[in-house]
Amino acid sequence: MAGILFIISAPSGSGKSTLVSQLRTLVEGLDFSISYTTRAPRGSEANGREYYFTTREEFEKMIAAGDFLEWAEVFGNYYGTAVSALERAKDAGRDLLLDIDVQGAVQVMKKRPEAVSIFIMPPSPQVLEMRLRNRSMAENMHMEAVIQKRLAEARNELKQIWDYRYALVNDVLDQAVAEMRAIVLCERGDDDGVRALAESCRTSAASPRLQAALSTFSE
Ligand code: ADP
Ligand code: 5GP
Predict the structure, then answer these.
(1) Ligand 1 site, residue 9, Cβ cutoff 6 A
(2) Pocket of ligand 1, candidates 23, 75, 98, 135: which has the most ligand atoms within 8 Å of its Cβ, to mutate?
(3) Helix (H) or strand (E) holding 120
(4) Quick one: pLDDT at residue 75?
(5) Binding site membership of 12 for ligand 1 (Cβ less than 6 Å)
(6) How would you classify residue 3: left for phi > 0, otherwise alpha for psi between -120 and 50, otherwise beta?
(7) What distance in angstroms lies between residue 19's CA and the mean position of ligand 1's atoms?
(8) Would 176 disulfide with which of 20, 64, 170, 211, CB 3.0-4.6 Å?
(9) pLDDT at position 1, please?
(10) pLDDT of residue 201
């Protein structure tokens, strides 16, 4: 395996975590980079599984020590990808998935232009709002202000979509998972009859599906 770096970004609540966890049951050899964050654990999250939870002070020490490939402040908390995660995956010859926000993705695209960037698009602001609400109810963390902030931020992040190599719309989950699998396999050079599907997700193809979803955000 080549040690490909996959950057996945999506507005919060688009379904990225859901998609990535399904993808990893279908595709072997994909490591997930566990980020550092100063936000508090949510729901059943555990330290060292979803994130390494740390303090602002420790995080700032790591910035100063040059420990991060990229870092950003998102919704008032720090998030960052440790250089060591990349080194570990590379040494093991495994591909690495980075689930990072747009600001972090832009930094990685500059430092590692060969990285494969994928943007996950919610089908519409209405669906995004519903998903954010459902998730916050399920986790017993319902805060209207947080939901509204995330919706506003989503519109901002969408402006960056054309910088990504691929974009897919997470409407029907199985379809989005199939698209993501197709992208990963094709980028590995393992066509498996899914090249046309992967190609249809290139941002340069600007598919009607992608354009339709984008247009709902400018209404
Ligand atoms: P993210 O990681 O992008 O913040 P999550 O994966 O936590 O988003 O998904 C947000 C919510 O939307 C969750 O409740 C999840 O179950 C739901 N969800 C994700 N993808 C879909 C989909 N394709 N259709 C319906 N609901 C979805
Ligand atoms: P959440 O708090 O919902 O888990 O994540 C909030 C946002 O932070 C998401 O957009 C997620 O992709 C982003 N994020 C998670 N880890 C990192 C990271 O290491 N770096 C950057 N730049 N963003 C991250």
Answers:
(1) no
(2) 135
(3) strand 116-121
(4) 82
(5) yes
(6) left
(7) 8
(8) 170
(9) 46
(10) 97
- Output the CA angle 81-132-140, nearest 5 degrees: 95
Chain centroid offset of residue 40 CA = 19
| Fold entry, domain 5-33+94-216 | Rossmann fold (3.40.50)
Question: Parallel, antiparallel, or unpaired for β 77-82 and 68-74?
Answer: antiparallel
Tokens matching residue 210: 């992608």
Q: Give the 3-state secondary structure of residue 80.
A: strand
Cβ atoms of 4 and 113 within 8 Å: the answer is no
Residues with CB under 6 A from ligand 2: 12, 35, 39, 70, 72, 74, 79-81, 99-101, 103-104
CA distance 175 to 182: 10
Which atom of ligand 2 sits closest to the CA of residue 80? 19
Of 8, 3, 4, 2, residue with least CA distance to 117: 8
Question: What is the 3-state secondary structure of 24-57?
Answer: HHHCCCEEECCEEECCCCCCCCCECCCEEECCHH
Average pLDDT, consecutive stretches of 10 residues, N- to C-terminus, the chain (219 residues): 87 90 92 95 90 98 97 93 92 92 95 96 95 82 82 92 97 96 94 92 96 92
Mutation choice for ligand 2 from 5, 8, 37, 44, CB with most ligand atoms inside 8 A: 37
Q: Is 210 helix (H, G, I), strand (E, B) or coil?
A: helix
Lookup: tokens for 115: 């990285």
